[in-house]
Specification:
306 residues, six-stranded antiparallel beta sheet, 12 strands
Protein backbone atom coordinates (compact mmCIF):
# COMPACT_ATOMS: atom_id res chain seq x y z
CA UNK A 1 0.00 0.00 0.00
CA UNK A 2 1.37 3.40 -0.94
CA UNK A 3 0.26 6.46 1.00
CA UNK A 4 -0.26 8.94 -1.85
CA UNK A 5 0.97 12.17 -0.24
CA UNK A 6 2.44 15.08 -2.20
CA UNK A 7 5.85 14.46 -0.60
CA UNK A 8 8.00 11.32 -0.56
CA UNK A 9 5.70 8.31 -0.38
CA UNK A 10 5.54 5.96 2.59
CA UNK A 11 5.03 2.32 1.69
CA UNK A 12 3.42 -0.01 4.23
CA UNK A 13 2.66 -3.64 3.51
CA UNK A 14 -0.68 -4.66 5.00
CA UNK A 15 -0.74 -8.13 6.62
CA UNK A 16 -3.84 -9.40 4.76
CA UNK A 17 -5.70 -8.90 1.46
CA UNK A 18 -7.72 -5.69 1.16
CA UNK A 19 -11.49 -6.11 0.74
CA UNK A 20 -12.40 -2.41 0.68
CA UNK A 21 -10.67 0.96 0.93
CA UNK A 22 -11.80 4.51 1.63
CA UNK A 23 -9.72 7.70 1.80
CA UNK A 24 -9.84 11.37 2.74
CA UNK A 25 -7.22 13.78 1.40
CA UNK A 26 -6.96 17.46 2.34
CA UNK A 27 -4.25 19.90 1.18
CA UNK A 28 -3.83 21.83 3.34
CA UNK A 29 -5.42 19.94 6.19
CA UNK A 30 -5.03 19.41 9.92
CA UNK A 31 -5.14 16.46 12.31
CA UNK A 32 -5.32 16.22 16.08
CA UNK A 33 -2.59 13.69 16.90
CA UNK A 34 -3.08 11.79 20.19
CA UNK A 35 0.08 11.87 22.32
CA UNK A 36 -0.99 9.83 25.37
CA UNK A 37 -3.93 7.78 26.70
CA UNK A 38 -7.09 9.36 28.14
CA UNK A 39 -6.08 10.86 31.51
CA UNK A 40 -9.52 11.19 33.11
CA UNK A 41 -10.15 14.65 31.68
CA UNK A 42 -9.18 14.30 28.03
CA UNK A 43 -6.65 12.93 25.56
CA UNK A 44 -3.38 14.90 25.33
CA UNK A 45 -2.99 15.90 21.69
CA UNK A 46 -1.06 18.06 19.27
CA UNK A 47 -2.56 19.64 16.16
CA UNK A 48 -0.44 19.08 13.06
CA UNK A 49 -1.02 20.85 9.76
CA UNK A 50 -0.03 20.06 6.19
CA UNK A 51 -1.06 17.52 3.56
CA UNK A 52 -3.52 15.14 5.24
CA UNK A 53 -3.89 11.61 3.84
CA UNK A 54 -6.27 9.36 5.80
CA UNK A 55 -7.13 5.87 4.59
CA UNK A 56 -9.27 3.06 5.98
CA UNK A 57 -8.88 -0.56 4.89
CA UNK A 58 -11.11 -3.57 5.46
CA UNK A 59 -8.92 -6.68 5.49
CA UNK A 60 -9.71 -10.31 4.80
CA UNK A 61 -8.34 -11.35 8.18
CA UNK A 62 -10.73 -13.70 10.02
CA UNK A 63 -7.92 -15.25 12.08
CA UNK A 64 -5.69 -12.24 12.80
CA UNK A 65 -5.88 -10.46 16.15
CA UNK A 66 -5.54 -6.68 16.35
CA UNK A 67 -2.00 -7.18 17.67
CA UNK A 68 -1.13 -9.46 14.75
CA UNK A 69 -2.35 -6.75 12.36
CA UNK A 70 -0.59 -3.85 14.10
CA UNK A 71 2.75 -5.49 14.94
CA UNK A 72 4.18 -5.68 11.38
CA UNK A 73 2.94 -2.16 10.64
CA UNK A 74 4.66 -0.89 13.79
CA UNK A 75 7.97 -2.43 12.69
CA UNK A 76 7.67 -0.88 9.24
CA UNK A 77 6.95 2.54 10.76
CA UNK A 78 10.05 2.29 12.93
CA UNK A 79 12.13 1.10 9.97
CA UNK A 80 10.98 4.17 8.02
CA UNK A 81 12.57 6.40 10.68
CA UNK A 82 9.53 7.36 12.73
CA UNK A 83 9.64 7.67 16.52
CA UNK A 84 6.66 5.99 18.21
CA UNK A 85 5.17 8.26 20.88
CA UNK A 86 2.00 6.30 21.76
CA UNK A 87 1.30 2.56 21.43
CA UNK A 88 -1.70 1.29 23.40
CA UNK A 89 -4.61 -1.14 23.34
CA UNK A 90 -8.28 -0.33 24.00
CA UNK A 91 -8.39 -0.49 27.80
CA UNK A 92 -5.04 1.25 28.30
CA UNK A 93 -5.81 3.90 25.64
CA UNK A 94 -8.99 4.85 27.45
CA UNK A 95 -11.71 2.78 25.77
CA UNK A 96 -14.75 4.84 24.75
CA UNK A 97 -13.23 8.17 25.83
CA UNK A 98 -10.09 7.73 23.72
CA UNK A 99 -11.96 6.42 20.67
CA UNK A 100 -14.30 9.43 20.56
CA UNK A 101 -11.45 11.87 21.03
CA UNK A 102 -9.81 10.48 17.88
CA UNK A 103 -10.54 11.39 14.26
CA UNK A 104 -11.97 8.23 12.63
CA UNK A 105 -13.58 7.73 9.21
CA UNK A 106 -17.26 6.79 9.65
CA UNK A 107 -18.83 3.33 9.60
CA UNK A 108 -18.82 1.16 7.60
CA UNK A 109 -15.51 2.37 6.10
CA UNK A 110 -13.76 2.11 9.46
CA UNK A 111 -15.21 -0.15 12.14
CA UNK A 112 -13.98 0.21 15.73
CA UNK A 113 -14.80 -2.35 18.43
CA UNK A 114 -14.57 -0.34 21.66
CA UNK A 115 -13.23 -3.37 23.51
CA UNK A 116 -10.76 -4.54 20.88
CA UNK A 117 -8.67 -1.89 19.17
CA UNK A 118 -5.05 -0.74 19.13
CA UNK A 119 -3.61 2.67 18.41
CA UNK A 120 -0.16 3.93 17.48
CA UNK A 121 1.06 7.47 16.82
CA UNK A 122 4.53 8.46 15.61
CA UNK A 123 6.48 11.45 14.35
CA UNK A 124 9.44 12.02 12.04
CA UNK A 125 10.62 15.61 11.75
CA UNK A 126 7.58 17.62 10.65
CA UNK A 127 5.63 14.50 9.68
CA UNK A 128 3.00 12.83 11.87
CA UNK A 129 1.48 9.36 11.52
CA UNK A 130 -1.16 7.34 13.34
CA UNK A 131 -2.49 3.81 12.91
CA UNK A 132 -5.79 2.58 14.35
CA UNK A 133 -6.53 -1.16 14.19
CA UNK A 134 -9.73 -2.99 15.10
CA UNK A 135 -11.79 -5.90 13.84
CA UNK A 136 -15.24 -7.41 13.41
CA UNK A 137 -16.10 -11.11 13.50
CA UNK A 138 -14.58 -11.80 10.04
CA UNK A 139 -12.60 -8.72 9.03
CA UNK A 140 -9.74 -6.59 10.24
CA UNK A 141 -9.87 -2.80 9.95
CA UNK A 142 -6.90 -0.45 9.66
CA UNK A 143 -6.96 3.34 9.50
CA UNK A 144 -3.69 5.07 8.61
CA UNK A 145 -3.47 8.85 8.95
CA UNK A 146 -0.41 10.75 7.73
CA UNK A 147 0.31 14.47 7.70
CA UNK A 148 3.29 15.79 5.77
CA UNK A 149 4.49 19.39 5.22
CA UNK A 150 2.58 21.27 2.53
CA UNK A 151 2.72 24.95 1.53
CA UNK A 152 -0.42 27.02 1.79
CA UNK A 153 -1.97 27.74 -1.62
CA UNK A 154 -1.14 31.15 -3.10
CA UNK A 155 -4.49 31.50 -4.82
CA UNK A 156 -8.02 30.56 -3.81
CA UNK A 157 -9.49 27.37 -5.30
CA UNK A 158 -11.03 27.74 -8.73
CA UNK A 159 -14.27 26.03 -7.70
CA UNK A 160 -16.47 28.52 -5.81
CA UNK A 161 -18.52 27.57 -2.78
CA UNK A 162 -21.87 26.17 -3.85
CA UNK A 163 -24.70 28.29 -2.42
CA UNK A 164 -28.34 27.29 -2.56
CA UNK A 165 -30.43 30.23 -3.69
CA UNK A 166 -33.73 29.63 -1.88
CA UNK A 167 -35.40 32.65 -3.52
CA UNK A 168 -34.50 31.32 -6.97
CA UNK A 169 -35.83 27.88 -5.97
CA UNK A 170 -39.14 29.45 -4.96
CA UNK A 171 -39.36 31.31 -8.27
CA UNK A 172 -38.73 28.04 -10.13
CA UNK A 173 -41.34 26.24 -8.04
CA UNK A 174 -38.77 24.04 -6.27
CA UNK A 175 -39.96 23.21 -2.76
CA UNK A 176 -38.26 21.65 0.28
CA UNK A 177 -39.09 18.10 -0.84
CA UNK A 178 -37.48 18.57 -4.24
CA UNK A 179 -34.43 20.17 -2.64
CA UNK A 180 -34.08 17.23 -0.23
CA UNK A 181 -34.25 14.73 -3.11
CA UNK A 182 -31.53 16.67 -4.92
CA UNK A 183 -29.36 16.89 -1.78
CA UNK A 184 -29.61 13.15 -1.06
CA UNK A 185 -28.79 12.25 -4.66
CA UNK A 186 -25.81 14.63 -4.70
CA UNK A 187 -24.51 13.31 -1.36
CA UNK A 188 -24.72 9.68 -2.50
CA UNK A 189 -22.87 10.46 -5.72
CA UNK A 190 -20.26 12.81 -4.24
CA UNK A 191 -19.72 11.47 -0.72
CA UNK A 192 -21.11 7.91 -0.82
CA UNK A 193 -23.45 8.56 2.12
CA UNK A 194 -26.38 10.75 3.15
CA UNK A 195 -28.44 11.42 6.27
CA UNK A 196 -32.17 10.84 5.74
CA UNK A 197 -33.18 14.01 7.55
CA UNK A 198 -36.94 13.74 7.05
CA UNK A 199 -37.19 10.54 9.13
CA UNK A 200 -38.13 11.43 12.71
CA UNK A 201 -38.02 8.85 15.51
CA UNK A 202 -39.43 9.31 18.99
CA UNK A 203 -37.08 8.30 21.80
CA UNK A 204 -37.22 4.52 22.22
CA UNK A 205 -39.31 3.95 19.08
CA UNK A 206 -38.40 2.12 15.87
CA UNK A 207 -41.60 3.01 13.99
CA UNK A 208 -41.92 5.41 11.10
CA UNK A 209 -45.17 7.33 10.85
CA UNK A 210 -47.15 6.95 7.64
CA UNK A 211 -46.55 9.54 4.98
CA UNK A 212 -44.39 10.56 2.07
CA UNK A 213 -40.62 10.53 2.57
CA UNK A 214 -38.73 12.44 -0.16
CA UNK A 215 -35.40 11.11 1.10
CA UNK A 216 -36.53 7.51 0.53
CA UNK A 217 -37.84 8.44 -2.91
CA UNK A 218 -34.35 9.82 -3.62
CA UNK A 219 -32.67 6.61 -2.42
CA UNK A 220 -35.01 4.49 -4.57
CA UNK A 221 -34.28 6.71 -7.57
CA UNK A 222 -30.53 6.38 -6.95
CA UNK A 223 -30.81 2.59 -6.84
CA UNK A 224 -32.77 2.62 -10.10
CA UNK A 225 -30.17 4.86 -11.75
CA UNK A 226 -27.32 2.68 -10.45
CA UNK A 227 -28.41 -0.93 -11.15
CA UNK A 228 -25.15 -2.37 -9.77
CA UNK A 229 -25.29 -0.25 -6.62
CA UNK A 230 -25.89 -1.61 -3.12
CA UNK A 231 -26.51 0.32 0.09
CA UNK A 232 -26.52 -0.09 3.85
CA UNK A 233 -29.04 1.70 6.02
CA UNK A 234 -27.32 2.52 9.33
CA UNK A 235 -29.48 3.32 12.35
CA UNK A 236 -28.42 5.69 15.15
CA UNK A 237 -29.95 6.56 18.52
CA UNK A 238 -29.57 9.17 21.22
CA UNK A 239 -27.70 8.25 24.41
CA UNK A 240 -30.78 7.40 26.50
CA UNK A 241 -30.37 3.87 27.88
CA UNK A 242 -27.70 1.17 27.60
CA UNK A 243 -25.44 0.61 24.62
CA UNK A 244 -26.74 -2.93 24.05
CA UNK A 245 -30.36 -1.79 23.99
CA UNK A 246 -29.58 1.16 21.72
CA UNK A 247 -27.67 -0.94 19.20
CA UNK A 248 -30.68 -3.28 18.99
CA UNK A 249 -33.03 -0.29 18.66
CA UNK A 250 -30.93 1.37 15.97
CA UNK A 251 -30.87 -1.86 13.95
CA UNK A 252 -34.67 -2.11 14.21
CA UNK A 253 -34.93 1.46 12.98
CA UNK A 254 -32.73 0.68 9.98
CA UNK A 255 -34.80 -2.44 9.26
CA UNK A 256 -38.05 -0.43 9.52
CA UNK A 257 -36.74 2.11 7.00
CA UNK A 258 -35.62 -0.72 4.71
CA UNK A 259 -39.12 -2.20 4.77
CA UNK A 260 -40.70 1.15 3.85
CA UNK A 261 -38.13 1.62 1.08
CA UNK A 262 -38.96 -1.83 -0.29
CA UNK A 263 -42.74 -1.88 0.22
CA UNK A 264 -43.61 1.73 -0.61
CA UNK A 265 -40.87 2.75 -3.04
CA UNK A 266 -40.21 -0.52 -4.88
CA UNK A 267 -36.54 -0.95 -3.93
CA UNK A 268 -34.85 -4.33 -4.41
CA UNK A 269 -34.51 -6.12 -1.05
CA UNK A 270 -31.34 -7.95 -2.13
CA UNK A 271 -29.46 -4.66 -2.58
CA UNK A 272 -30.20 -3.26 0.89
CA UNK A 273 -28.55 -4.11 4.22
CA UNK A 274 -29.70 -2.79 7.59
CA UNK A 275 -27.29 -2.20 10.48
CA UNK A 276 -27.30 -0.34 13.79
CA UNK A 277 -24.56 1.36 15.82
CA UNK A 278 -26.61 2.77 18.72
CA UNK A 279 -25.29 6.03 20.18
CA UNK A 280 -21.66 5.44 19.12
CA UNK A 281 -21.63 8.01 16.30
CA UNK A 282 -23.49 11.15 17.46
CA UNK A 283 -23.70 14.19 15.21
CA UNK A 284 -24.93 16.52 17.96
CA UNK A 285 -24.85 16.79 21.75
CA UNK A 286 -27.02 14.40 23.76
CA UNK A 287 -27.40 17.06 26.48
CA UNK A 288 -30.37 18.75 24.77
CA UNK A 289 -33.60 17.44 23.30
CA UNK A 290 -32.77 19.10 19.97
CA UNK A 291 -29.43 17.31 19.88
CA UNK A 292 -30.96 13.97 20.87
CA UNK A 293 -33.52 14.33 18.09
CA UNK A 294 -30.74 14.90 15.55
CA UNK A 295 -28.96 11.78 16.80
CA UNK A 296 -32.08 9.63 16.31
CA UNK A 297 -31.56 9.11 12.60
CA UNK A 298 -30.88 6.68 9.76
CA UNK A 299 -28.10 7.21 7.25
CA UNK A 300 -27.68 5.55 3.87
CA UNK A 301 -24.18 4.43 2.84
CA UNK A 302 -23.17 3.22 -0.63
CA UNK A 303 -21.51 -0.20 -0.20
CA UNK A 304 -20.86 -1.16 -3.80
CA UNK A 305 -17.44 -0.47 -5.33
CA UNK A 306 -16.47 0.09 -8.95
Amino acid sequence: MVMACPTVALTLDLPAPVLAEESRVQVPGSYTLPLAPFDGRGVPTRTVEGALDQRAFQLDAPDLTTLAILAPLREQVKAAGYTVILDCEARVCGGFDFRYSTDVLPEPDMHVDLGDYRFLSAIKGEEALSILVSRSALSGYVQITRVTPAPLPDTPPETPLAVVDLEEDVQRGVGPAERLVSEVDRALNDMGSAVLDDLIFASGSASLTEGEYPSLAAVAAWLEANPDGTIALVGHTDASGSLTANIALSERRAEAVAEVLIESYGADRTRIAAEGVGFLAPRATNQTEEGRQQNRRVEVVVTSTR
